[in-house]
Amino acid sequence: MTEHSPVSLPAISILGVGSMGRAILSGLLAPGVEVDGPIRVTNRSAASAAKLPDDDRLVSLLTESDENANSAAVKGAAIVLVAVKPAMVPDLLDEIADALAPGTVVVSVAAGVSIATFEKHLPEGVSVIRSMPNTPATVGRAVTGVSAGTRSTPEQLETVRRLFETVGEVLEVSESQLDALSTISGSGPAYVYLLIEALTTAAVEKGFSADEAALLVNGTFIGATELLRQSGKTPEELRIQVTSPKGTTERAIAVLQDARLDTLFTAATDAALARARELAAG
What is its EC number (predicted)? Predict the structure, then answer.
């Protein structure tokens, strides 16, 4: 979402505000975002609730002191985000099913839990949309995949798209593609951090201090990605622009290409996809 793009959303509740739930909440509380009524969220403990922002647009309910907290949170909500741990999802859905009004959209933020599982535990009149945000949501730079359920409408999907655009960009895909998407954007930040770690180690081995190496490498990655974002050029075009014929960068790139970096990333994402399917199968 840009600073100049006001967003209006219906009543929302979030069940489970761990790191991802809080990241989404930060987008909903951002300037220019209007949510109908207070955003009701549930936490297991007061310690978890203490991590939430102090905002009068927010109502926090504690499940450890109120066994009806989740049901109370979803009453009247048009959109319910389920952001608890995957193993907790079936019991939670059974708990809130009777409190959901017909036409409510339940949005899964629980990795590996299928739309079919959600729909099995919810009334016929309740729609399900599955999502896969990534951790840059915490700084408003997420890439979120969303998939329609069998009962959701295009209008409901568009509303959920607008919700996730408050924390970054959104890509609509079929559910069959969502696990593959998770191996790219979901796990992708870890791949980038691993590359940063490796290049930082190389810098230290060349005599730079840890602080100097961090400045060199972190700054280079941040600058390169910002240039990619602003230039309108492809990564290939920018790489060629930096790689002078017969120069030092060309020699370094040749080593990386000889190591078949492309094949390595394909193998890595294939491994992640296989694991995602194992988890989905229980």
Answer: 1.5.1.2
